Q: What sequence folds into this?
């Protein structure tokens, strides 16, 4: 079981689409799939540079959780019949470059990237939780459970980054702001195309 001991398995490979707000659910699942895909590529880039360093096992641990998140969103894409964003090839390259580039600044740079990305993603998940609670918390109970668990995992990654000197990275505030602007743009685009 993932952290928190909550099973996140869907009851079946297909869910009833009757009565759901399909445009809202499509946007949520599409953007979350893209985000978890991008996170996987960021950690792949960081591991390519820092995999054999003292921080390698920590990055690997966070990456393993992101792999689980991506697997779940792959399943949700099928269950809810949602197409992926057409930007996946771009996020493939951009995520890896961001991960490797931040890691080239050293472990503090990699952790600064982690803090910036995970803060953006957990805030985004909180927004989605509010949306689904306003829609119908009972109807979207399963999806809410998944998003809440993943939000908590992202907050944990954020905190790990801070514990490993993210704020001591060169030009931390500039780096964090730039990465978070990129995350906002990626979220905006991935929800729509």
A:
């Amino acid at each position: 079981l993932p952290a928190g001991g909550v099973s996140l398995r869907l009851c079946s490979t297909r869910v009833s689409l009757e009565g759901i707000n399909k445009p809202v659910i499509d946007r949520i699942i599409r953007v979350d799939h893209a985000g978890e895909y991008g996170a996987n590529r960021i950690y792949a880039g960081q591991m390519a540079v820092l995999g054999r360093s003292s921080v390698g096992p920590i990055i690997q641990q966070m990456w393993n959780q992101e792999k689980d998140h991506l697997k779940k969103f792959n399943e949700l894409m099928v269950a809810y019949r949602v197409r992926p964003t057409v930007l996946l090839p771009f996020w493939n390259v951009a995520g890896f470059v961001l991960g490797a580039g931040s890691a080239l600044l050293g472990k503090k740079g990699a952790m600064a990237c982690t803090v910036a990305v995970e803060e953006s993603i957990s805030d985004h998940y909180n927004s989605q939780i509010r949306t689904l609670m306003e829609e119908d918390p009972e109807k979207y109970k399963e999806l809410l459970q998944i998003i809440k668990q993943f939000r908590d995992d992202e907050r944990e990654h954020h905190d790990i980054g801070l514990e490993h000197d993210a704020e001591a990275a060169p030009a931390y505030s500039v780096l964090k702001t730039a990465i978070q602007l990129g995350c906002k743009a990626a979220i905006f685009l991935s929800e729509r195309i």
Summary: The mean pLDDT is 94. DSSP finds six helices and no strands in the chain. The two ends are 33 Å apart (CA to CA).
